[in-house]
# Entry
Amino acid sequence: MRVWLLAGVLLFGGTSLYGQGCSQCRDNVQQTPARVRAAYRQAITLMVGTALVLFVGVLVVARRVR
# Structure
C-alpha cells in the first residue's frame, strides 16, 4: 500500500513542474526568444529529475541501513 501511495505521489505530484517558480525568473524568461524559454523548461525538468533521483536514493540507502 505504501509503495503505491509513494508511486502516486511521485507520478502525479509534479504538476507544478512546468511552471516558472519565482516572478523574477518568469519576467527574465519572458523577454527571451522561444528557443531560450524551451531550453529553460528543459533545464528545470532536468534539475527536478536529478533532485528526485538523489532524494529517492538517499531514502533507499537510509531504509536499508535502518
Observations:
- The chain has a mean pLDDT of 80.
- The radius of gyration is 16 Å.
- The first helix runs from residue 2 to 12.
- The helical segments are 2-12, 23-30, 34-65.
